[in-house]
Amino acid sequence: MTSQKQRTMPIQEELERRILHGLAFEWENALETLNPPDKHRMRKPFFSLRDMRGKWGYWAGEKNEICLSRELVLDHPWDTICEILHHEMAHQYAEQALGGHDESPHGPKFKRACHLLRANPKASGSYKPLDERILQYSPSSKDKIMSRVKKLMALAQSQNQYEAESAMAKAHQLISKYNIDILARDEDRHFVSIFVGHPALRHFREDYHLAGLLQDFYFVYGIWVPAYVLNRGKMGSVLEISGTMQNVRIASYVHDFVTRFIDSQWQRYNKKKALNRYRKTDFAVGIVKGFRSKLKLQYTERSGNKGEPGLIKIEDPLLQEHVNYRYPYTASVRGKVLRGHKDVVRDGINIGKKLVISKGITEKRKSRKLLVDK
Q: Does residue 6 have a pLDDT over 80?
């Protein structure tokens, strides 16, 4: 009889094969930030996975090899893996393009390579992976406002609709105040960039509507970036958001909450209708539009109260600098304006107006492990 271990081995081998394939694609994509002459100095390396302790990866110049930890690639999401990959690429670039053979591993040429490749110079050794840094981050004692936001989000799960609505509205008010105060005091702030959602070859209209909502109401900058789609073996795209750790945590949670809300409401709505996937998109777009109108109304009502922050488009110059550096080459693409089924969209809007973001902001979620479709 075939043991469970024997049955699972081919699955893990296939998963690792796809991950190695993906690393090669991501290596090619990362070169796009370099000038053409610099790209040609980089020799495409061999990629490998190994069990290792005390490090997440290494660059072996004599072998022209980038090796990553098996634990890293199996137990952490793709953006975390890419952060380590880019760090090891910087070691490669420092050696092959900048002639850094004779300097210390994290010397000036390596730091220059990190700057050019948009790599994190700290992402090695015992440095916590990106997803763990996000999950384990806790506000400082100065951030009393954000501590109150978390409590209000928990209160927003109340069965009393009025109480839940009031708690969510107050939480959004405090989020606005928090960001306005930071800008007014011109405090130092560190920005991070993470994936929300999953890399895919194709994204639906609701994904773009949701991305716009996060950028307009949750103080993050969103951009669709190239990313490897593991189960398809090709490069696709994913939404990456940038902002302070606090804002990225909240925006990421809101994205996941709204996505789950759409799925649960669609199952209920479509139980007896048997509508197709296109109608789900109409329904989902309606929900996002309905929730957007609700948030806008809350901000508008607050703007009528003296001293209350209204719907103000806050431009953070330091975040803009971070974005300009991280994404040196961007382009805007306009899609076709598609008309959905008006009744389904309307029903989605009405449901979206009742959506209350609650709970979960303080909850620690497990790392998103990589899965291969069966």
A: no
